[in-house]
Amino acid sequence: MSLRTVHPAPGAEGPRPDHQARRGGSVEAHVPGAPLGVLAVLAVFVGLVLTAFVLPAIHSAPRDVPLGVAGPATVVAQVTGALSAKAPGAFTTSAYTDEAALVQAIKDRDVYGGIAVSAGGPKVLTASGGSPAVAQVLSSLAAGLGAEQGRAVPVTDVVAPPVGDPRGAGLATAVLPLLIGSIAPVAAMRRVVRGPWRRLLGVLSSAVTLGVTLAGLLLWFGVVDSFLLPAAGLSLALAAMSTTLLGLAALAGWPGLGLGASTFLLLGNPLSGIQTAPEFVPAGWSVVGQLLPPGAAGQVLRSDFYFGGVGATRSALVLVAWVGLGLVLVAVGAARAVRTEPTERDAGAARVVETG
Predict the structure, then answer these.
(1) Pairing of strands 65-70, 91-96
(2) Do 322 and 194 fall into the same domain?
(3) CA 39/CA 16 separation, integer angstroms
(4) Is residue 50 part of a domain?
(5) Last residue of a domain, which of 132, 157, 182?
(6) Is there a domain that residue 39 lies in?
(7) Does 300 lie in the same domain as 242?
(8) How far apart are CA 14 and CA 215, in angstroms?
(9) Residues 122, 142: Cα–Cα separation, whole Å
(10) Do 87 and 203 belong together in one domain?
(11) Which of 65, 103, 192, 294 is deepest in the core (most CB within 10 A)?
């Protein structure tokens, strides 16, 4: 038996490195300056995140917080002047004829609280359901007035959280679970469901299911004392975030989902003002925070949890707009996939013919 050495035919030496790169091989292309570009992008992103967390924290203070003052016109003018002198720029005041009108304005979420002056002296009205931070500021103001007058100034909490959650901590901590509840379904649907519209149906169904589930748990925990409005608010918030994330993923894949989730989590959450009030966030940043889903969701949920849905319209419209944006992004992603599918199929057929 003889051994023969088989030499490859010319041109049959196997794929060259450039062919491997084009066909998904392990050869990596070198892009000049790529590391510097990555470092620059990371620096900008981390800087924005740091700013979003640190700036509201170190500059958290009341700015143009709406308050009401009830009583005779001369007394209202005196109280308004005193508030401006003690805390310049902290409050904007509206005049009301009597305490009943001021109480109604608080329940309508026109103001966070205020001072009612009558023959019996001043009384401070708060709404810890509207903002525990503002309520604390007003309580301190009442203590200061009492020290000046030599007698205690009564404080009445007009709209308080349920007795099961007297500090309103349940609402303040609900935003993070909402963010997780909007990211996880999108990631899961991309794994187990094919087709953008089926994924959209799955994400919307998940938003309703999770909203109802969370509302039931919050009712059981004593955070809320009703079910329907909190369930509707939670479902809308989840739908706004998850639909937008699904649209971004339809356009840019997993990087799009990551970008959207990072924006909501690392920018929207600290700028939402849910821990204090939007008026405590520095000017400009507060506007951004309320236009992002976490901030709008916080205001909708506060209205639904404690005020019977009053005052939720503007923030609810912001969430509806995000749902609409998500639908548009999903449609664009689906249309682009339909256009590119024949091209990819033809390219695959060409490769089969070439290799055959």
Answers:
(1) parallel
(2) yes
(3) 32
(4) no
(5) 157
(6) no
(7) yes
(8) 62
(9) 9
(10) no
(11) 294
Residue 304's domain comprises 169-347
Nearest one of 249, 238, 256 to 337, comparing CA atoms: 249
For residues 87 and 103, what is the distance between their CA atoms, to the nearest angstrom?
23
Cα–Cα distance list, 277 to 229, 260, 265, 302 (Å): 21, 24, 18, 11
* 264/253 Cα distance (integer angstroms): 17
Closest of 156, 158, 208 to residue 182, by C-alpha: 208
173, 161 in Cβ contact below 8 A? no
Q: Rounded CA gap, 188 and 206, in Å? A: 11
Amino acid at 291: L
Residue 174 pLDDT > 90: no
Answer yes or no: is pLDDT of 243 > 60: yes
**pTM, entire model:** 0.82
Co-location of 314 and 189 in the same domain: yes
Tokens of 339: 């256009």
For residue 88, tell me if it sits in a domain: yes
User: How far is Cα 161 from Cα 197, in angstroms, rounded to an integer?
Assistant: 40
| Alpha carbons 216 and 110: distance in angstroms, whole number | 29
Domain membership of residue 54 (yes or no) is no
Average pLDDT along the chain: 86
**Between the CA atoms of 305, 306, 309 and 315, what dihedral angle is there, to the nearest 10 degrees?**
-70
> Could you report the per-residue pLDDT of 317-346, keeping only the tens digit for each?
999 999 999 999 999 999 987 776 655 455
Burial classification of residue 212, based on how many CB atoms lie within 10 Å of its CB (0-12 exposed, 13-18 middle, 19 or more buried)? middle
Looking at the structure, tell me whether residues 100 and 130 fall in a common domain. yes
179 and 142 in a common domain = no
